[in-house]
């Protein structure tokens, strides 16, 4: 899993072909609703 913040956007990528991370938490600097 690779994640980064670029401006107001948070990008999260999973490059594993078989595993998914449904409840994986990524920290964000600002509170809000994220999808």
Structural features, described:
This protein has 35 residues and is mainly beta. The protein is built from no helices and two strands. The protein is globular. The model has no long low-confidence stretch (mean pLDDT 82).
Comma- or semicolon-separated keywords:
35 residues, mainly beta, A-amylase/branching_C, cation binding, Glyco_hydro_b, Alpha-amylase/branching enzyme C-terminal all beta domain-containing protein, two-stranded antiparallel sheet
Write the SSE topology.
Layout: E1 2-6, E2 9-13
Antiparallel strand pairs: 1-2
Q: What is this structure, in a nutshell?
A:
This is Alpha-amylase/branching enzyme C-terminal all beta domain-containing protein. This protein is 0% helix and 29% strand. It is mostly beta strands and 35 residues long.
